[in-house]
Every structure is written in C-alpha cells, then in structure tokens.
C-alpha cells in the first residue's frame, strides 16, 4: 500500500517550542472560545439529542445573524482559532488571512509558497493542530505543480502582517492532482488523527484502486504516518470508492460523515465506516450491490454539489455550490431521521464551507468568486448563522 510522508523536521519542532514559550495571549490563540468545528480537534458534545433514540425534530430553522466579513476573494478553507477569530484560505492567491469575527477586520498572515492555482486546485482546506494553543501549527491542503499535498506552518501573530507564517513543512504528498476533483478538505478528528478528503482528479479508475491516494478518505497521524487501526495495514487509506470528497464532520458520538460530489445524477452524504467501498465509478448514489456502502441521503446535482459540512443541533449541515442552498440532514445514529430540508435557497449564491461556531451557530462562506458564480458587490462573504 502507498505510504507517502515526511516527518517534521527538528528545526520546525524546535521553532514550535520557542514560539510556544514566547507568545502571549495577546495574539488570541489561547484555550477557550470557539470549538467543535470540522477544522478543530473535537466535535460538539453538548447536544441534548445525542442519544440515538432522540432524533432532532423533522423540521428545523435557519437565521442569518450577520455578515462577519465581506469582499473576500475565492475563500475555501476556514478554521476557527481557539481564542476567537477565523483563519481563511484564499484558493487562488494562496494567502491565509485572519478574520476578526467581531469586527470583520482582515490581517494577512502570509502567502503559502508552492501553491499552483488552476481549475479547482489551489490553497484549499485548513485545519489547526490539536495542540494549536501551544504549538501554533496550521495545516493546509494545497495543489502544487506536481501533486496535492498537506503542509504545516508555524503561525506567529506577534510578527508583522504578511510575515506571520513560517516556512511550510510537507507532512504528506503525492495525492493526485487535476484541473478538477482535487478534494481538499482536511480535519482533525476526535481521535487526534488528521483526515483528508481527496478526489480522483478526473481519472475514475483511481477511486477503486486501494494503492492510489485519489478518490479516498485518508487518515494519518499529525506527522503524516498511517494512523494506528487503519483498515489496510500500513496505508493511510481509510475508505475508498469516492469521487470528490470536500466535506468531513463528526457527530456528538464521534461518528464520521462525508459529503461527495456526484457526476450527473446523485450527490451524496455518507456515514463513513473504515475500509468500506463507496462505489464510484461503478455506482453513483444508492445501489443494489451489497459490495458498496450506500449514502444516507442523496440529491440531484443541481440541488446540491456539496462542499463543506458541519454538525450542530443533531443534524449535519451541508453547503451546496451549484445548489446554492444550505441543507439540513437530521440524524438518528448514522441514518437520516427525516427528509433533508433546504434553507437559504438562491439567497447568497454558491455556498462552500460551513463549520461550527459553537452551540447552535455556524460560520458559512459563499463561493461566488470561484469562476462559476455571479458575485455581488460584497462577495465573497462569511456569514454567522443560527440553526435549530
């Protein structure tokens, strides 16, 4: 099985120790505050509807509280900081910007070197180290001239704007790249392991090839090694038969869910079981073939084209690009307990990323400047949304 990794250098480790010792709480990277997003270290666990016998109501609600920030260009990854504030990835420019979630003020941390933005590739998902409050490490999934890869960088808020990112250290590389289907979502699970959703880069055969990293969900240690307990021995492959995974989230019982782009017929939300085959390209959507793990919900591609997902209030919340809406999928265990419900349809345009803002609130980004949308004068935006 394929194992592509690079251990963190001793220089980076030493720098992390020095930075942790020298940084004060003035940078806002202190424990407390935001938690429970698909980019953070653990899901929300305070939902009173966690017991499988108590599913959420069949009908929910969504209220847009406010616009947090506007005039953003090709936003993709979004990671809430432990002490407040958001880190935002610009797909095309390859920059990471800190957004003050109270005032909307933008501070550019720096540009990630090596980003090759073309088609659907560029600087994509962001995730914070499980120990970010002390080690100040930011992980990023990016497209280069040769591959998709995961890097990590030190973030030093005490340095001037534009100089706050350390040199990237490659954690994992050689994920297939293409003009389409680069995947790109990364997240640390409640087990402290790093998960990545990849795409088959337009080469359908990669999805069923367990020796390929394309069309998979990968699970690895923070250093890029195959995680203990992975289903295929010394391999980072966790599940396969995917077309293009851009959403990862855990419910309050630490069960993993993933969204997936279909081709012409069905988009999917899947409950992920390690080692299972999710069917692409042989099956799109639900199948009668017992070889494949069927989705818990499916949509016509013009109603969804899903990217990010988050868990809140007993439901998975799924952002739709082509569908231009936010879907609510109420859960009972690893199944949908009621038909999915759509909100914000054709209101804010294409929706890319959704993460938990704690409790019953979400951060939601639009994606109208990505070359496929029709931007308004204030696009793109980050919205604060209240859900039930």
TrEMBL record:
<feature type="domain" description="Glucose/Sorbosone dehydrogenase">
    <location>
        <begin position="72"/>
        <end position="372"/>
    </location>
</feature>
<keyword id="KW-0732">Signal</keyword>
<feature type="compositionally biased region" description="Low complexity">
    <location>
        <begin position="36"/>
        <end position="45"/>
    </location>
</feature>
<dbReference type="InterPro" id="IPR011042">
    <property type="entry name" value="6-blade_b-propeller_TolB-like"/>
</dbReference>
<dbReference type="InterPro" id="IPR011041">
    <property type="entry name" value="Quinoprot_gluc/sorb_DH_b-prop"/>
</dbReference>
<protein>
    <submittedName>
        <fullName>PQQ-dependent sugar dehydrogenase</fullName>
    </submittedName>
</protein>
<dbReference type="Pfam" id="PF07995">
    <property type="entry name" value="GSDH"/>
</dbReference>
<feature type="compositionally biased region" description="Gly residues">
    <location>
        <begin position="25"/>
        <end position="35"/>
    </location>
</feature>
<feature type="signal peptide">
    <location>
        <begin position="1"/>
        <end position="20"/>
    </location>
</feature>
<feature type="region of interest" description="Disordered">
    <location>
        <begin position="25"/>
        <end position="61"/>
    </location>
</feature>
<dbReference type="InterPro" id="IPR012938">
    <property type="entry name" value="Glc/Sorbosone_DH"/>
</dbReference>
